[in-house]
Amino acid sequence: MNKGKKQIVSFDLDQTLLDHATYTIPESALKALELLRKNSYVILATGRDMDNYYSREYKEIVNPDAIIHLNGTKITVDGKLIYEHTMDKKLLRRLFEFAEENGYSVGATIGDDDYYLHPEAVARIDMERWGMSGRKFRNPWTLLDGPVRTLAYIGTEDEVKDIEAHFPELKLPMFAGKTGADVVEKEASKANGLLRICEYFQIPVSETVAFGDSMNDYEILTQAGIGIAMGNALEELKAAADYVTTDIRDNGVWNACEKLKLFER
Fold it and tell me: Of 87, 152, 206, 209, which sits with the fewest C-beta atoms within 10 Å of its C-beta?
């Protein structure tokens, strides 16, 4: 499948490519993506499902060669599904019962609909971000009837620690904004997704670069040949990265590509 390209460059979306201050991708980052395409496969590695209604426009803007969705539990190449993993149903039910009892907002966005226990927490964050919440909330318990790859939790870091303490099978890496966390089975990660993409494109993992800003990027940054943390990244991620670039609002993607000569590889 290798078409003569020499490396894979992976990008998280939120607060790595997508600036949450404006909900736009900086022009310098878009320019960097275009230059990288000459010799590199450009991929997205995100906690989002990029096929959801609130993500599709960014997928079209970035136009990646492949996407690691939902922290490695769904992988698509040119829109074709090449891998997926779904959560254990018994574990899912136990988690929902625990979240319902403790007032925790756990759920997922699937397609154009949102399925969350205690959806008022999600609506509150939406209001703080955008001044409105136009979500189509549905009955979250119906998730138990179908395949679920990952979930999201909206709440505080202390509550995240409480969930992890009760569910050792799960990891809940915090969002960079500390408004919640991804809810993922421990076996899943963006790093495992990267290895699958490497196999697909026949490129060694040593010839990969990964950009990120939050703790769901930790594994992929340490797995990749070069792991790059944004200047606005969490401090724990910066400590694990091979290189720390400038803030997303200070041309962080472009500056790292120039400094590390990624356009020339």
Answer: 206
